[in-house]
Design goal:
Elements lengths: L9 H24 L10 H21 L10 H15 L2 H18 L5 H18 L8 H13 L7 H22 L1 H6 L4 H18 L18 H4 L6 E8 L2 H14 E9 L2 E8 L2 H11 L1 E9 L14 E7 L2 H9 L3 E4 L8 H11 L3 E5 L6 H13 L3 E4 L5 H9 L7 H13 L2 E7 L4 E3 L2 E3 L4 E5 L2 E6 L2 H13 L5 E7 L4 H14 L4 E8 L5 E5 L1
Parallel strand pairs: 5-6, 5-7, 7-8, 14-15
Antiparallel strand pairs: 1-3, 1-4, 2-3, 9-12, 9-16, 10-11, 12-13, 14-16
Helix pairs in contact: 1-2, 1-3, 1-9, 2-3, 2-4, 3-4, 4-5, 5-6, 5-7, 6-7, 6-9, 7-9, 11-12, 12-17, 14-15, 16-17, 18-19
């Protein structure tokens, strides 16, 4: 029997998370089964469960930090941990929205945890969720959240926390029953909104946490007028779901919202204070990841293909090739060994679109993955891809911005799996790789790291000068430390022709001493390559 509480203290938050996780575990299959909107992919219950699981683990970590067992965390610590855990672990459209609901509640409950704060927390949560969704739709979890907040707001001023929570639950359940009449796809399928049902389950756990009594959990369905197969509900929609965590400023995220809104639908961006969870459905997964790279630092990138029949119904095996732009002879040989068709980018002479089209033709493949490996080649590569498509070749352009991203993508390339699955895996690998290079300053100039003099060694991370040094080894170590401060599992070093092998040995030893769980791999770039290229996956 859960502890009865008349406010949302830390113990109540912990109990709420535990009960919500248990309830969603019991109902996840039933919720998955009614998932027909926005995409009928049958995973809403699972996504909600995984999101709450992450929130629960974060709260448990806060309690574990109190080693004596005689004290508990303050409520503010618990609700903030709950919100942060949900944010970093959010899955799918429904999980991302739930994370924003919990974040909205936490922002209020951190300042107080009585009945009045719970009312205001529910109101703020509903508003925050709507703000996070690019195009809110009625008959969804947003409608249910708003109804819960409004019902809680109508409770008497002297009502306790349990009464406010129960009113929110009943308001949400009533709104859930009405969703089939608000959203046509639900009415045709004869189901209530899956995300809304998940929220009702979470609110039911809240009632039990603060009152000690579980509410009655009954859910209605409606007679189906037209019950479509799951794929019919999503016919013609975008092919990929893209989710990633993003470290970025508010201003950059504002631009990102606009960019992603033009690429696809089901856009939800939640978070704040420099950390965001981005969710969108698109046809061009690479462009969605590239938009995140331009906005800040995306990581934990997850790309899911909704089913090849949504875009290309044919399933017969086809010949596939990878076309890679490389900055040096050494990498050219490495990529050729991996089976790729290469185009050499000489210093000051980037390949034209015609060269890329010729390379695609040389590949003699019906399906081609194109890796430009340079941000400046984005438009050139796009033009080449369009030309090749006009000639009947299916081309996927992965917007790699550096050679080390191309190496990461090529490393996971598997021609035996479906084209879409291969593109998803390669895009995710490239997007998860930060890149850097060392260059020699040609003249005095202003940089983001300060003023450099001619002959200085510049360390560029993700395209911007981050380190100015006097020699290659010192600068390389500083660049590595900056990149690995954000985490990493694998460091790729590509050495230019005139760089001695001893530098690779020094840098490998530096990584081994300071970052025990990080592996290092070394390649030779050849004549055209910069003194040093670095990738961190």
């Amino acid at each position: 029997m859960p502890q009865t509480a008349d406010d949302m203290d830390a113990v109540a938050v912990r109990t709420w998370c535990s009960l919500a996780l248990e309830a969603l575990g019991q109902e996840r299959e039933a919720i998955d089964a009614i998932n027909v909107y926005p995409v009928a992919d049958g995973d809403t219950g699972t996504n909600l469960y995984l999101t709450v699981e992450s929130a629960t683990q974060a709260v448990e970590a806060v309690f574990a930090a109190h080693e004596t067992g005689t004290t508990v965390p303050v409520a503010a610590d618990a609700v903030r941990a709950m919100a942060h855990g949900a944010l970093i672990g959010a899955r799918g459209n429904s999980g991302t929205i739930l994370a924003q609901l919990l974040r909205g509640m936490a922002g209020v409950l951190a300042d107080g945890h009585d009945a009045d704060h719970l009312r205001r927390a529910l109101t703020r949560a509903a508003a925050a969720a709507r703000e996070a969704v690019a195009h809110p739709v009625e008959g969804t979890v947003l409608t249910v959240a708003t109804a819960a907040a409004e019902a809680a707001g109508r409770t008497a001023d002297d009502a306790g926390t349990a009464a406010v929570a129960r009113a929110a639950y009943e308001g949400a359940r009533t709104a859930l029953e009405a969703t089939p009449g608000q959203l046509a796809v639900l009415g045709r399928a004869g189901v209530v909104d899956a995300g809304g049902r998940g929220l009702v389950t979470v609110l039911g756990a809240l009632v039990e946490a603060v009152s000690g009594r579980a509410p009655e959990r009954t859910y209605v369905t409606v007679p189906a007028t037209v019950a479509p197969a799951p794929q019919d509900c999503a016919e013609g929609g975008p092919a990929f779901e893209v989710i990633y965590l993003l470290e970025a400023t508010d201003e950059a995220v504002g631009r990102l919202r606009t960019r992603l809104d033009g690429l696809g639908d089901s856009l939800v961006v939640v978070g704040g204070d420099g950390l965001w969870n981005v969710h969108v459905h698109v046809d061009d997964a690479g462009a969605a990841v590239e938009a995140g790279v331009e906005a800040g630092r995306p990581y934990r990138i997850r790309i899911t293909h909704f089913g090849a029949d949504r875009v290309h119904p044919h399933t017969e095996p086809v010949q596939r090739a990878v076309v890679v732009v490389v900055p040096g002879d050494g990498l050219r040989g490495l990529c050729k060994e991996a089976g790729a068709t290469t185009v050499l980018a000489r210093p000051g002479e980037p390949p034209a679109s015609g060269e890329l089209v010729d390379a695609i033709r040389r590949a003699h493949a019906r399906e081609v993955v194109l890796l430009p490996n340079d941000a400046e080649l984005r438009h050139t590569a796009a033009a080449a891809a369009e030309q090749a498509r006009a000639e009947g070749v299916r081309v996927a352009l992965i917007p790699t911005r550096a050679a080390v991203q191309g190496i990461a993508a090529l490393a996971v390339h598997e021609p035996d799996r479906s084209f879409d699955e291969d593109v998803v895996a390669m895009t995710a690998a490239a997007g998860s790789t930060r890149y850097a290079e060392l260059a020699v300053a040609e003249r005095q100039s202003w940089t983001m790291a300060g003023i450099c003099q001619a002959g200085d060694i510049l360390g560029l991370i993700d395209g911007d000068v981050a380190v100015i040094g006097e020699d290659v080894p010192e600068t390389a170590r500083n660049v590595l430390d900056r990149m690995l401060a954000a985490g990493g599992e694998l460091v790729t070093l590509v050495l230019g022709e005139d760089v001695p092998d001893t530098l690779a040995d020094e840098l490998q030893e530096h990584v081994r001493e300071g970052y025990l769980a990080v592996d290092t791999v070394v390649y030779r770039g050849g004549l055209q390559c910069a003194p040093l290229l670095i990738g961190v996956e």
